[in-house]
Design a protein that fits this description.
Layout lengths: L2 E3 L2 E3 L13 H8 L1 H5 L2 E6 L2 H8 L5 E6 H8 L8 H8 L11 H16 L4 H9 L22 H10 L5 H7 L13 H5 L11 H12 L13 H13 L4 H8 L3 H4 L4 H7 L2 H9 L12 H14 L6 H19 L4 H9 L5 H17 L5 H15 L1
Parallel strand pairs: 3-4
Antiparallel strand pairs: 1-2
Helix pairs in contact: 4-6, 5-6, 11-13, 12-13, 12-18, 13-16, 13-18, 15-16, 17-20, 18-20, 18-21, 20-21
Bound molecules: manganese (II) ion.
GO molecular function: guanosine-3',5'-bis(diphosphate) 3'-diphosphatase activity; nucleic acid binding
InterPro entries: MESH1 (IPR052194), QSregVF_b (IPR024530), Ribonucl_H (IPR013520), RNaseH-like_sf (IPR012337), RNaseH_sf (IPR036397)
Length: 389
């Protein structure tokens, strides 16, 4: 039963039973291909925002007309906008037969009722449904019954961030002058001037933390019972504070896991991803064990690897953060008198000279990349001055 309105037709579906019914795809693309592919189709439904996206992709053009939204317009005091309730109010209620098409026919009867009772054409109904109504009231929630234009700003903003952007309530809010909002164009952050983070955890950093916490569980900082995890968290924090990505932050949590625990590259990659595993690998100096009792050899290999890295290598920020945290922690516990300082360095298997060469070479190499945060490089430089001047 098509209703003419301009170039558009509304196609009522009748007497098809679900059991033998074609699939939506078959119905649209095979049996009625011409009606959908070449037409401006009006999708009439109760709560049409759910039905519309199913039909729209098959149509040359699709327009939605929601009988629930029209119900809100014409019956602002209705206790509910469920199909059955509206049908009863409008006197178009059908005797339920539990056929699949009962709802379709009821929705269609509602549409006919709205059109005839208000002497409106389908085009006028579409226009009306899409128009913003200054008298519209909240249909649900703690402010049910309040005029939408009078909603508290915080609540309105919460609604916008929670509801679908095509939701009727959101559409009513769109042009509410006091709320200065154009939903879907501005984000919540822009509307409230709230600063949003550069990135939000996707699960990578959580998985990296879990693996790091497990693998380093029995390790403590040298000379204290403080869990080694503090170093990993501090390095990750420095990475994030200086603009690092989630992957870099995750790599920071795991930067010592290959070197200091029994964990394989494969395991890191499986738990996180290849980018992170590669960064972790890049931050590790290969273990030489007994073959090289000279601690400088290990450091030299690390420095050579560092020098070879491209300036945009994402592992560099992790490496710099690691060195900053180590150097600052050492500088904080560094004694004031010359005697105590000599004693201090004797505790290390790599003494003063090697440590000095190590840190100054690191600083020079990292600084020469020209891509790392100057504030972080400066912190390394300051700590080096305290330790070796
Ligand atoms: Mn470290």
């Amino acid at each position: 039963m098509p209703i003419e309105h301009g170039a558009e037709k509304v196609h009522g579906i009748s007497d098809a039973m679900v059991k033998d019914a074609p699939t939506l795809d078959d119905f649209i693309t095979v049996q009625h291909a011409d009606k959908f592919r070449n037409s401006n189709v009006l999708v009439v439904a109760h709560n049409a925002k759910f039905d519309y996206p199913m039909f729209a992709p098959y149509c040359a053009k699709a327009t939605q007309l929601c009988t629930m939204n029209l119900g809100r317009k014409f019956y602002p005091a209705a206790p509910s906008y469920k199909l059955g309730v509206l049908a009863k109010i409008c006197g178009v209620q059908k005797v339920p037969t539990h056929r699949a098409l009962d709802d379709v026919e009821t929705s269609f009867a509602l549409l006919q009722h709205f059109a005839t009772a208000n002497s409106l054409s389908i085009s006028e109904l579409i226009e009306l449904e899409q128009a913003v109504d200054p008298n519209a009231v909240m249909p649900f929630g703690k402010h049910k019954g309040t005029k939408i234009v009078d909603l508290p700003k915080d609540y309105a903003i919460w609604l916008i961030s929670t509801l679908d952007k095509d939701d009727w309530v959101v559409r009513q809010l769109r042009n509410t002058p006091d709320l200065y909002i154009y939903i879907g164009i501005r984000t919540e952050a822009e509307m409230t001037d709230k600063q949003m983070p550069n990135w939000q955890p996707t699960g990578l950093i959580q998985r990296a933390f879990k693996l790091a916490a497990k693998k380093h569980a029995t390790q403590a900082n040298k000379g204290s019972g403080i869990p080694y995890l503090t170093h990993l968290l501090a390095v990750s924090s420095l990475v994030i504070e200086h603009g690092g990505t989630e992957e870099q932050a995750a790599a920071a949590l795991l930067h010592d896991v290959l070197e200091d625990t029994k964990t394989s590259y494969k395991r890191v990659k499986r738990t996180t991803n290849k980018n992170i595993a590669d960064m972790v690998k890049a931050c590790s100096s290969k273990k030489f064990g007994e073959e090289h009792s000279d601690p400088w050899i290990v450091k030299k290999v690390y420095l050579e690897k560092l020098n070879d890295k491209k300036p945009n290598d994402p592992s560099l920020l992790v490496a710099l953060s690691d060195k900053v945290h180590n150097a600052e922690r050492t500088a904080n516990e560094y004694p004031k008198t010359a005697d105590e300082q000599t004693k201090y360095w004797s505790k290390f298997n790599a003494g003063y000279d090697i440590q000095k060469l190590w840190y100054t070479s690191l600083y020079e190499s990292l600084n020469a990349k020209g891509t790392l945060p100057p504030a972080l490089l400066e912190r390394l430089q300051v700590a080096i001055k305290i330790l070796f001047n």
